[in-house]
């Protein structure tokens, strides 16, 4: 994932106690009560990470990157984190990608978007139908709910793909990134 005109930052989640692993320290963006879409979100840990990631976005803005030229996203929890960050706190970003990710049924994201009247960042989503950790139906439900709340979404389905990435998925993501952040706009932005 290298681009001539785009800076790519790969933040890593901090180590924290993770309830689904009986409190064992794990590098996760936020805690969960269980790996399921039908339980409450651990909003305190989500909001704590949103504050930290907001600092990362603000640093890029201070360095001259226009906010509407910033995309955020991730795989699994990283995609869920990106959806919280963008749709609750940074609705003026260029877009969001979520790979093998989901939001809980009663997500704070949905509550925020129910009150929203502004244009929202586009969501690029991919999910494998054989994912046994984050069920495909959870990703599909997230996509449908966000679409019903005014988010322009795309969901790319990968038959027989488990909780992993594949080359085709990465190529589709790269194409979307270049569509959202074309080189011509970067040159006129300088």
UniProtKB/TrEMBL annotation:
GO molecular function terms noted in the UniProt entry: carboxylic ester hydrolase activity; palmitoyl-(protein) hydrolase activity
Where in the numbering of this chain does the Phospholipase/carboxylesterase/thioesterase domain appear?
2-178
Q: What is its EC number?
A: 3.1.2.22
Gene3D superfamilies noted in UniProt: alpha/beta hydrolase
Superkingdom is Eukaryota
Q: Does the keyword Hydrolase apply?
A: yes
Q: Which Pfam families match?
A: Abhydrolase_2
UniProt GO cellular component terms:
cytoplasm
SUPFAM superfamilies xref list: alpha/beta-Hydrolases
Q: Which UniProt keywords apply?
A: Hydrolase
Q: Which family does it belong to?
A: Belongs to the AB hydrolase superfamily. AB hydrolase 2 family.
Can you say what this protein is called?
palmitoyl-protein hydrolase
Biological source species: Aythya fuligula (Tufted duck)
What gene makes this protein? LYPLAL1
